[in-house]
Amino acid sequence: MKTCSIFLPVVILLLPLHAADEPAPVRTGQGDGIYKTVPGWPSYPEGKGLGNLHGDLASDSKGNVYIATGNTIQIIGPDGKYRGDIRTKGGKVFKGVHGMKVRRLAGEELLLLAMPRIKRVVAVKPDGTVAWQIIGPPQVPGMYESVGEYNPTDMDVSSDGRVIIADGYGKSLVHLYDKDRNYLKSFGGKGKGEAQFDVCHNILVDSRGKKSTLLISDRQNNRLQQYDMAGNFIRTIDDQLGRPCAADIHGNLLAVGELDGRVSLYDKDYKLISRLGDERKARRKASNRIAPEHWHEGDLIAVHGCTFDVTGALYAQEWNVHGRVTKYVRVKTP
User: Fold this and answer.
1) CATH number of 26-332
2) Is the pLDDT of residue 137 over 80?
3) pLDDT tens per residue across span 252-281
4) pTM assigned to the model
5) What is the pLDDT of residue 17?
6) Among 33-47, 283-297, 307-321, which is the least confidently predicted range?
7) Residues in contact with 194: Cβ distance below 8 Å, sequence separation at least 6, in sequence order
8) What sign results for the dihedral spanned by CA atoms 229, 225, 56, 174?
9) How open is the CA angle 168-171-173, to the nearest 5 degrees?
C-alpha cells in the first residue's frame, strides 16, 4: 500500500510535464501563404535521431521524405515515422550528401545526390543501387587545375534526361551534360555581375512554363537567377533574398529556402506570395550551433534544404549540429 500511495501521485505529476514538451502548432506567413507547423515531426524510436545536418531533403510520389544526414539517407514515411536508412549496394557512395532530389527517369524514381566531399554526383535507386554517376569535373583544359577545386553542391535532370550540375563550393560554374552524360558546356563563374555566381548552391529545373528553365540559387549574392536550358541568362527573379540555399516546386508554387532563416514562396509568375519563419526579429540567424532550448516553434534559423511532399506540405531542413527539420502545412489558400 505504501508503494501505491507514493507511485500514483508521481505518475499524475509526470503526465502534464510530458504533454508540455510538445509545442503547439504555430502559424507563419502572410496573405495567401499562411502555413502552420506540425510539432514533433519526424518521430524516431529510442536512441535514433537526426544528428548534425548540412544536407538536403526530398520527397517521392508515395509521400516518403528522404533526409540527407551526411553519410546516410533517412526515410521518413507518410505517417511521419522513421522507416530506416538507404544503404548503397556495391560501394560506399554516401559521403557528405549535400544536395538531393527525387526525379522520375525512364519510368522509375531515382534519388539525385551531389557530394562535394568525394567530387561526384550520383543517381541512386530507393533500394540503394547506384544507377549512374559522374565523377570529377569536366575534362576541359584550364578549367580546373586540380580535382580539389571541384565541389558540386547540387544536381538536377531535365525531362529529356539532360544533367545539370552546380559547382557551388568550387568555381561557381554550372555544367551541362546530355542524356548520355556527355559533357556539353559550362556557364557562370565567380562574380557579382549578370550571369555570374558567388556560390551557385542549388539548381532546379522549372517546367511550369511553355519552356523549361533553370532556377539557380546564387547564395552569397542573395539572389535567385533564371536561365534557359542552354545556360543563357534570362533574368534575376529576386535579389532581396537572405542567402538562398534550396528550392522546390509543387504545382504552381515555388519555395526558396534561405540560410538567413526563412522560406520565400512565389507563384508561377515569380510573384512573391509569402515569407515563412521570419517573424521573430531579435534572434540569431545563419548559425549551425543554436541549441534546441533556444529554438522557437515555427521560427527558422539557417535553412539549408527544403522540399514539398505530394500533398503540398513543406519541409525545411536546417544547417544545425543538433539536427532540425520543420514540417509546415498550408492553412490558407487563394
Assistant:
1) 2.120.10.30
2) yes
3) 999 999 999 999 999 999 999 999 998 776
4) 0.92
5) 37
6) 283-297
7) 233, 236
8) positive
9) 70
Handedness of CA 195, 154, 315, 280 (dihedral sign): negative
Q: In what order do the strands lie in the sheet with 120-124?
A: 99-105, 108-115, 120-124, 130-135
- In this structure, are residues 272 and 31 in contact, taking their beta carbons and an 8 Å threshold? no
Each domain of the chain, given as residue ranges in start order, spans 26-332
- How far apart are alpha carbons 165 and 96 in whole angstroms? 16
User: Per the structure block, which three cell numbers stand in for 151?
Assistant: 565541389
42-64 residue pLDDT tens: 999 999 999 999 999 999 999 99
**Per-residue pLDDT reduced to its tens digit, 61-120:** 999 999 999 788 999 999 999 999 998 765 566 889 999 999 999 999 999 999 999 999
Contact assessment for residue 117 and residue 92, using Cβ atoms and an 8 Å cutoff: no
C-alpha span between 205 and 131 (Å, rounded): 21
What is the pLDDT of the chain when averaged over all its residues? Answer: 92
